[in-house]
Amino acid sequence: MKNHYQNLVHSTIPVSKSIGWRIEALSATTIRASTQLKPNINIHQTAFAGSLYAAAMASAWTLLKCCGDALEYKAELVAAEGNIQYLKPVPNDFLISGEINTQSEQYLKLLERVSLNQSCAFKQSVEIHCDSQLCAILTVQFVFKV
Amino acid sequence: MKNHYQNLVHSTIPVSKSIGWRIEALSATTIRASTQLKPNINIHQTAFAGSLYAAAMASAWTLLKCCGDALEYKAELVAAEGNIQYLKPVPNDFLISGEINTQSEQYLKLLERVSLNQSCAFKQSVEIHCDSQLCAILTVQFVFKV
Lengths: 146, 146
What we know:
2 copies of one chain form a homodimer. In chain A, 34% of the residues lie in helices and 36% in strands. The first copy, chain A, is an alpha+beta fold.
């Protein structure tokens, strides 16, 4: 599963490859990805805020795409809004992790919409860690569009 | 001025170059930048949400950096939070524009903090246009750190 989505994202979103993003582990409800610092360096020798967002967005999109595919949801997945909080500078290669809460109200709603073949909004967060510290949190309002 | 900041950003934030971002016009209070679609394409043949954010962040950072330099503000410029609203898909090369409101309360506060050589927060928005349509708005909470 990891290799399938790795190839899908690298081939269809080439910037994910150029920033050194790759999937370390993936299931229909969890993702762990890594990104290299070097192509994303900024003037302070830490990761550029825009690269942190792009890597986190690639991760969040992949997680939701994988989830939708597992549910056989015939929908395009697009982002409507993104919010990122930068908590600490990122001075090294970094990890991105996210988990879909399958106990949440929005997940139950998603299952219903899949069964009805209707569009559905879904909000998902992913965290960026570097050197074992939480450095940023991205929250994306996605829409599965039928 | 444009060439100085173009070189500064491309050399210190290399991802700005790899996504095909460049400055078209720059002053201490306005920026206009362009970005190529091709390196930023996504699975829908439009611009990847993460690339739109990165290009807009590079633009907003450059605008504020140029403003701070013009005021001789001896401060590092970092992002604390970013919020982007995606209004329409971006199917072609796109433009980013932003303007600092020098009549705003936060700008007057900025001038005061510069004169006192103290840190200062500053919120700035930039817009992404493609094919003459407003496609996304990024708002960044920056901090000038002394």
